[in-house]
Amino acid sequence: MELLKQRILKDGQVIGNDILKVDSFLNHQMDVQLFNEMGKEFYRLFAHKKVTKILTIESSGIGIACIAAQYFNVPVVFAKKTEARNLDADTYLAEVYSFTKGKTYNVRVSKKYINSRDVVLIIDDFLANGKAALGLADIAEQAGAEVAGIGIAIEKGFQNGGRLLRERGLEVQSLAIVEGMQDGVITFR
Amino acid sequence: MELLKQRILKDGQVIGNDILKVDSFLNHQMDVQLFNEMGKEFYRLFAHKKVTKILTIESSGIGIACIAAQYFNVPVVFAKKTEARNLDADTYLAEVYSFTKGKTYNVRVSKKYINSRDVVLIIDDFLANGKAALGLADIAEQAGAEVAGIGIAIEKGFQNGGRLLRERGLEVQSLAIVEGMQDGVITFR
């Protein structure tokens, strides 16, 4: 998606060889106009799949998922990272390793909100090692739901998450795939 | 807001005397159509304040804030609860006590994304003891920004957050104020 790539080139910051900071428009400050263009693009890519629900993970995926959901006209469910007092006891559980936080944690979705009649589109802001998306796909499969695919804003093509997910037969559509960030220069696939 | 009140009566679950579960439409599964009606209402209430930025806190506020931001045509900034490796070192910091999680934690906003020219509308899903909203107002004030007001989906009128914020001179607009939940019966102010 050209608009997103241009925005990454304009406002993205490379730190070292593996961190791409896009927090001025994607995952701290959020440019909702850009999110709308991304939502339209996800709809163009996945409209034929008859999606019934969008599944994401707190926190950075929620904004993109909600804006995209307006085009699909379906609810969003976000997997929770913490055990809040008001979360149902009866949940689907997956283990996820966070690249940015350097730790493993459990994510949970109440069994009430995904079921075997659902066609689930997974949306997230980043795809790096693929652990978050795999955890969400795992939860959808535990529920007996069909996974329509995985819609990602920015994929780090030099990490192995995209390959892992595609090898598992999942349709991954990334709006921008960063192939390299050598010496602070971002190149796209 | 009648539509939200009716939805709370239809789908809200009261647990004990103080927990109101609305996770089927507000903060786990999210009804984005309802969020759009809420966003329009926040715009009606705060349009005259010339808002330049919406400030919320991860995670449940993000969806509502992003949908509302479309009416205001401004970016959303969400305060982060954790120290991610990719968060700026230079942040505004506030301490927040979470009622649902039973603990105190720090929230941070990068100094890049709020400044003294901003007119900040704070949006969150719940107002109970008011600690999250106070923390966000504190961050806006540290930045020298003007606080346009606080837009809340559901205020628990029987807890003291709303009173604390209003006594501090902040304009609080809650789309539904729950006055009581005795014996599982929800009453509104």
Structure description:
- By secondary structure, chain A is of the alpha/beta class.
- Chain A has one domain (2-188): Rossmann fold, CATH 3.40.50.
- In chain A, 30% of the residues lie in helices and 34% in strands.
- Chain A contains five helices and eleven strands; from the N terminus they run αβββαβαββββαβαββ.
- In chain A, strands 5-4-8-9-10-11 form a six-stranded mixed β-sheet, with helices on both faces.
- In chain A, helix 2 (32-46) packs across helix 3.
- Chain A is globular.
- The first copy, chain A, starts with a helix and ends with a strand.
- In chain A, 50% of the residues are buried.
- Chains A and B meet through strand 3, helix 2, helix 3 and strand 5 of A and strand 3, helix 2, helix 3 and strand 5 of B.
- Strand 5 of chain A pairs antiparallel with strand 3 (29-30) of chain B.
- Chains A, B: GO terms for molecular function: xanthine phosphoribosyltransferase activity.
- Chains A, B: It catalyses: XMP + diphosphate = xanthine + 5-phospho-alpha-D-ribose 1-diphosphate.
- Chains A, B: 5-phospho-alpha-D-ribose 1-diphosphate binds at residues 128-132.
- Chains A, B: Belongs to the purine/pyrimidine phosphoribosyltransferase family. Xpt subfamily.
- Chains A, B: Converts the preformed base xanthine, a product of nucleic acid breakdown, to xanthosine 5'-monophosphate (XMP), so it can be reused for RNA or DNA synthesis.
